[in-house]
């Protein structure tokens, strides 16, 4: 458990986030957990989401141990009815949602020739990333429009910005769709006082990647980045804080590469 304490009176680097209600989907571990912890450290009230109850409890307990406020919720984000039920629970426990971080997703196929990709793998990747993001936004957006305020952050990938033979095509295509969804939505909802931006991380040293990437590949990966290191979940979390705060008040429709310079668009 990290030895961190919420800033006094909830006032950290972004005091305007204090007291905001924030939902981070896919926050039982990795990037999502880091985003949730950092928002809590800024004094936000955070709903951590996932389907692994034990992992969610660990993130929630860490936030509360550090002096923050968090609840845990579960839902299959490919099923609208479950998202709607989750939204109702969050609103009852914490209040109307100010910031939605649609982070849930993942890769459900391996790299390889397109013609060898199964239909099942394609649909799982599109549903688990693009459809999940669409349905999550569809649930939370009406309330934001009614209140004429809100902030939505989607999570794409460097795979959608830079074609590579080792990128699973269904995953890359779904993540590219998230970027276009973000920008179309930003154009639609700006007049309602809602901002929508997207983060596209490159190689991030999550717990899973630390286990999957062989030690011999670490240094070659590092050398692909002008900033000579791999990314951390906190790098993505800090970008999320900026996009959710008033420091970025005139930014919407942005796809922000968090890539150590490995992706430049």
Structure, described:
It is a single chain. This protein is an alpha/beta fold and 265 residues long. It has one domain (14-255): 3-Layer(aba) Sandwich (Rossmann fold). It is 43% helix and 14% strand. It has eight helices and seven strands, in the order βαβαβαβαβαβαααβ. The protein has helices at residues 30-41, 53-65, 80-93, 119-147, 169-189, 207-212, 215-222, 233-244; strands spanning 21-24, 45-50, 69-74, 99-102, 150-155, 194-201, 255-258. A seven-stranded parallel beta sheet has the order 3-2-1-4-5-6-7, sandwiched between helices. Helix 1 (30-41) links the parallel strand 1 (21-24) and strand 2. Helix 1 (30-41) crosses helix 8 (233-244), helix 3 (80-93) runs parallel beside helix 4 (119-147) and helix 4 (119-147) packs parallel to helix 5 (169-189). It is globular, with a radius of gyration of 18 Å.
Question: Could you write a compact summary of the structure shown?
Answer:
With 265 residues, this protein is α/β, with parallel strands linked by helices. The chain is 43% helix and 14% strand.
Query: What is the averaged pLDDT score?
Result: 93
Count up the helices. 8
The CATH class is: Alpha Beta
CATH homology group: NAD(P)-binding Rossmann-like Domain
Order of helices and strands: EHEHEHEHEHEHHHE
Portion in beta strands: 5-15%
Q: Note poorly predicted spans.
A: 1-6
Distance separating the two termini = 37 Å
> Over the alpha carbons, how many angstroms does the gyration radius reach?
18 Å
Query: Based on DSSP secondary structure assignment, what is the total number of beta strands?
Result: 7
Briefly note the structural class of the backbone.
Answer: alpha/beta
Strand order of the largest sheet: 3-2-1-4-5-6-7
Q: Return the domain count.
A: 1
CATH topology grouping: Rossmann fold
